[in-house]
Amino acid sequence: MIQPTLLQPADRRLAAAAISSILILGSARLLLDIFKTNHQPHLSTIHNKPSPQPIFLSPADRRSFSPAKCNPFEGQWVWNDDHNVTSSSSPSPLYTEDSCPYLVKQTTCQRNGRPDGAYQRWRWKPAGCELPPFEAAKMLDVVRGKRVMFVGDSVMRSQFESMVCMVQAAVPRGARSFDRVPPRKVFRAGGEWDVTLEYYWAPFIVESISDHATNHTVHKRLVSLDAIDKHGATWKEADVLVFESYVWWMHKPFINATYGSPENIREYDVATAYKVAMETWANWLEANINPRRQSVFFMSMSPTHL
């Protein structure tokens, strides 16, 4: 196993901006081209096989997306016309339902009867710059030897599946695997990359009676506002953690929850319960995450997909 490398301060800022882009993009166009520099050593052989030529950031990559000059949260969706694709925008779509076997049936629009494919041709354009083009091989190379974990509800699951679909074609069939062990889904790109992309079902981030990924209650909800350690035992060794929690809190204006004793069940205003849960999560981060080795990102408000 390759040990994670520390990010330099400038690269950490670029990482924040790059991963922030995935929180905007429905297609999960996350380009983590910030985990290496042009001066890093590169592993020459893995499993006694020559590795491919290293794919490092070029000066053009760094100039095209500067977090100091571009806020990825401000922008608009633009139509991606293949006849007018610029050098800094990726042709669409980056994958199709037929090309990716890892999509759940709820999110395969065309298999569920949608007749058109035009919805796949929109891309997010920040107001002050262009996002770098997505390259699957570069994505895998810059997160070589790392665990990237997406945590949340089905909105975050879609982000995870989209990322897997964008990179899987670059991995030889015999070197990739996909395992479903609730509450996790794990995609591994082996061989020369040794990359793990993971999804962890935790719709409230803190513990609840809805924590089984496939056999959970939807209408009856009970949240343990100060309990998170059972989830956190799986999260703590990830190199990159992307959290999301919002839709499941908005079922009703009040929610049943516990705090302190698991027997002390009472009705909370949703905003109050959400705040307490986020404080529990933040305290867990402070106690368990090493900011010199790990990166954490959070997405709150998100669209429904009913």
Automatic annotation (TrEMBL):
Residues 69-130 form the Trichome birefringence-like N-terminal domain. It is found in: Membrane. Keywords: Membrane, Signal-anchor, Transmembrane, Transmembrane helix. It is a single-pass membrane protein. Belongs to the PC-esterase family. TBL subfamily. InterPro entries: TBL (IPR029962), TBL_C (IPR026057), TBL_N (IPR025846). GO terms for molecular function: O-acetyltransferase activity. This is Trichome birefringence-like N-terminal domain-containing protein. Residues 131-305 form the Trichome birefringence-like C-terminal domain. GO terms for cellular component: Golgi apparatus; membrane.
